[in-house]
């Protein structure tokens, strides 16, 4: 069985800004997936997702 992940390091980042999220590139999708798993652990972290296409429901449903 794999060892559990270590505790997140101390950090000062308060915001993550993702621009052009509607383009659905592999790096953007991976970042969104990592953030989805990390956000419950880092309640003070704010994520700003910007997109030229205002399909907010896609992101609201994903992060729901």
From TrEMBL:
Residues 1-64 form the Helicase ATP-binding domain. It comes from the Eukaryota. InterPro entries: Helicase_ATP-bd, P-loop_NTPase. The keyword ATP-binding applies. Transmembrane segments: none annotated. One of its GO terms (molecular function) is helicase activity. Keywords: ATP-binding, Helicase, Hydrolase, Nucleotide-binding. The keyword DNA-binding does not apply. This is Helicase ATP-binding domain-containing protein. It comes from Fusarium oxysporum f. sp. raphani 54005.
């Amino acid at each position: 069985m794999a060892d559990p992940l270590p505790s997140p390091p101390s950090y000062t980042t308060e915001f993550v800004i993702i621009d052009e999220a509607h383009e659905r590139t592999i790096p953007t999708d991976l970042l969104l997936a990592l953030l989805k798993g990390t956000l419950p652990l880092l309640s003070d972290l704010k994520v700003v997702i910007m997109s030229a296409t205002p399909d907010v429901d896609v992101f609201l449903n994903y992060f729901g």
